[in-house]
Amino acid sequence: MPHCVIEYSAPLAEVLAIDELVRCVHQGAIASALFEPASIKTRALCCEHFAVGEAAGSFIHIGFAIMPGRSQAQKQQLTQAVYDLIAHLVAEVDSLTMNITELDHATYFKQVS
């Protein structure tokens, strides 16, 4: 844990190194020191169809799904650690958002082989 899911508007792939974005988000989660590095999973999902406000703007949304138990300060530490590493990549993106969602222990399923 956590799952770091990066959603981005498709045209960004032409002007932004998505693999570098994934690497930086992953490193930011490690740098937060809130998780065991081996448990962090990061992936990027391209959104072909999207709308941003009233214009054809670009966006990146990073969602973090984590187990409960971290304080608000620790959650802010996570988003700040990630932002510090991606800021240079996303300077020209119209909308950057991040959100942390806590998973429910009772309904979360994980199988490792």
Automatic annotation (TrEMBL):
<dbReference type="GO" id="GO:0008704">
    <property type="term" value="F:5-carboxymethyl-2-hydroxymuconate delta-isomerase activity"/>
</dbReference>
<protein>
    <submittedName>
        <fullName>5-carboxymethyl-2-hydroxymuconate Delta-isomerase</fullName>
    </submittedName>
</protein>
<dbReference type="Pfam" id="PF02962">
    <property type="entry name" value="CHMI"/>
</dbReference>
<dbReference type="InterPro" id="IPR004220">
    <property type="entry name" value="5-COMe_2-OHmuconate_Isoase"/>
</dbReference>
<dbReference type="InterPro" id="IPR014347">
    <property type="entry name" value="Tautomerase/MIF_sf"/>
</dbReference>
